[in-house]
Amino acid sequence: MSNRIDAKAKEAEGKLESAFGELTDDTGHKIKGKAKQAQASAMNAVEDVKEAARSASRKVRDANQHDAKDKAN
Questions:
Q1: I want to staple 29 with a disulfide (CB 3.0 to 4.6 A). Which of 2, 21, 23, 69 is the partner?
Q2: pLDDT reported for residue 73
Q3: Distance between CA atoms of 48 and 43, rounded to whole angstroms?
């Protein structure tokens, strides 16, 4: 869960920096802000993959337990 929070913080930081760049017409801040937002998106994608792997693992485990019960009966 902490990684999702870190990603949200990074996204907010990026939006702020990008907005600052827009207000001051500073290309460097605009680019850095967009890069931080992209990093946040990548962090969220990693968490999505982790969650999908955990879900798949649970399904396999549950299917194996179900099969074991069927064989026992």
A1: 21
A2: 65
A3: 9
